[in-house]
Amino acid sequence: MLDGIDDLDWTAMQHAYGPAGDVPAMLRGLVAADAELRSESEEGLWGAVHHQGDVYDSTLATIPFLLEIAQRPGPSQATAFDLLGSYGGIDTASLVELGEARPWLAPGGTYEDARRLIADARQVFLDQLASSDARVRDSAIVASLAGPPDGRVAEALLALFERERDPRTRTTAHAALGWLSRQGLSELDDWVRGQRESPDPGVRIAALIEAARAGEPIATPTLVATVEAAYDQHGPALPTSTRRRLSRRAPQRERRAEAEERVIARVCEAVPDPAPLLMALLTSSDWEIALDAISPASEHIRKVRGDHASLVRLIAARMDEAPKEVGRALMVAGPLAAPARPELVKAPVDESVLAALVNVQDPHAVPHLRTELRRAHPSSSVGFQVARLGPVSSALADDVVRALRAGGEATYGLLQAVAQLGLAEAVPEVLRVLPDPFAIRALRLLGPPARRVVPQLQDLLGAEPKVAVAAAHALWSVDANRSGLSVVLHELDAPTNGFTYRAAADAAGEMRVEEAIPALLVGMEGDDRHGWPQLHSARALWRIDPEPALAPRLASALRTCWVNNESIRLDVAQLLVEMGPSGHALADLVQEELENPLRLTSRGGGWSTSDVERDEELLATLRRLA
User: Fold this and answer.
1) Which terminal CB of the chain, N or C, has fewer other CB atoms within 10 Å?
2) Of 305, 321, 340, which closes a domain?
3) In the listed set 291, 314, 340, which residue is the last one of a domain according to the structure?
C-alpha cells in the first residue's frame, strides 16, 4: 500500500510549517494499526498539509495516496474521504448545518488544481456509497460534491436516500441534494422541499429550511413541532429538579440532544422573521429547547432592527436556569436589555451580567465596579465601563483616581473615565502618563479645569508628530492657546500617516484655523478607500467655515464616504446633524438606511458585543435627520 510514496521529493514541497518531508510518515500513520498514531497523523494532515483549508503543493501530492486509502476498508477510510472532500472545497459541517458546502473558495492556483483532481475522482466516491460503514457513506456523500454539479451524483444520492436506514446519512444525503439543487440542478427542487413528511426529523428540518429559503411561508407551529421532534428522537428531557441542580452546580449540563444544538439556529437563519418561532421556543416546557433558543434569540437581536422587548423579557425569564447564557445574551443586547433590569439586578454577577448592567446604566453596577477598581490590579475594561455607566458613575470618582495612581493595564480605560467624569482632581495622575497620546486626550477633554498643564503640553510640541499634534489640540482646549498652530498646519501639509492627519484635522476644526482650509480641501477630496481622512477633513472645514457655499462639496465627499464604508456612517450622520439644513443633501441615503431591517453592524460578517449599541446610536442619529 502507498506504493511510490518515497519516489516523490517531499522535502522540496511545502506545507503550513515549512518543508513537507514529514508527510510520508503522516500518510503511513493514517493506515497504522496503532490508534494513537492514526490520530496524530490525521491531526498532522489537517493541521499542516491542509491548514485552515489551505492547499499546498504537498496537499496535491497526497491526493493519489488518500484515494488509495479511501478505496480500502479500514479505520481511516472515512478520514481519507473527509480530507479529499475538503481539498475539493466541501465541508461536512457547513453542508449539514448551513446547507452551504463550500467554506473554502480561494480562486485559482493549487486550490483550483485540487478541485479538479477531486472532481475527476468522483467515481471513487460514488462507488463507496455502497459501503457497509455508515461513516464512510456519509463522508463519501460530501466528497462527491466537489467540482461542477453533476446529474450522476444526484441520481446516486437519490438512490442512496431511498435505501439508506441510518438517519445521519439520510440527513447528509438530503443536504447534499439540496446543495445540488441550488447549484443548478433545479429539477431536484420539488423533491428536496417535499421531504417535510420524512420519518427522520433531521430531514424534515432540512426540507423546511430549503422551503423557507425558497420563499415558501412556513407556519410557526409547524416549525416548533419539527424542532421538538428533532430533540425528542433522543428521548425526553431531564426533569426540572435535575435540570436546576445541574445548571447551578455542574460546569456543563447533561444534554440528551447534543447533536441538535444548532437546529434552532439553522431554522432561524432560513426564515424571514424568526421572532415568533423564538418566542415559542423560549417558552417551551422542554428546558433543552428553551435554553438552546437563547443564543439564536440573542443573535436575532444583534442582527435585526426592531422592538425586541418581548424577546428580551423571555430570555431574561430563563436567568435562574441558565445564568451564563442569559447574561451573555443580555450583554449583547446592549441598551435593549433594559426590560430585563429586574432579572439583572437579582442575578449572580459575572462579567456578562456586569456588562449588561453597565449597558443599561443601572446603579446596581456601581458596587461591583468599585470592588474591581479597588483590586491591586484592576481589569483593563473597568475604566471603560465606568465611562459608559452614565451619571451614576460619579460615585466612583475617588476610586478612579486611586486606581489611575496605581497604574497598570487599566490605565487607558481609566483615562477615558477621567475625561467622561470630568475629574480635574486626577490631573496629577494623568501627567504621570505623559507623553502618551491617550493621556493628552484626557487632558484635552477635561478642558479649562486642566489649565495648569499648559507648560507640560507646550514642552511636547517638539515631540514626535502624533504627540505634538495631540498636545497642540489640548492646548487649545484647556487654554485657548494657539501656540501649537504651526504643528497642526505642518501635519496637514505633509501628513506623517492617516491617524496623525486626522488628529490634525480635528484640531484645525476646533481651533477654527482658516489657514488650514487649502490643505483640508485636498484631504477631503483624497482617495483613501475607507474615507476617514476625507470625513475628518470635511468636519474640520464645516467647523471653520460653515457656509452654504461649501456645503455641496462637503455633501459630495460625505456621500462617497457613506457609500464606500459602512462603518463610517455613524460619524457621517453625526456631522450631517451638525450641518443642519445643509446636511439634508444626503436625505436619500439616510432614509435608505432607516428602512434597512438589518443592523449596519451585522452586515459585514463581523461580531462584537457592542454591535447593538452602535447600531441603535446610528438609528437615533438618523432619526434626527429624517
Assistant:
1) C
2) 340
3) 340
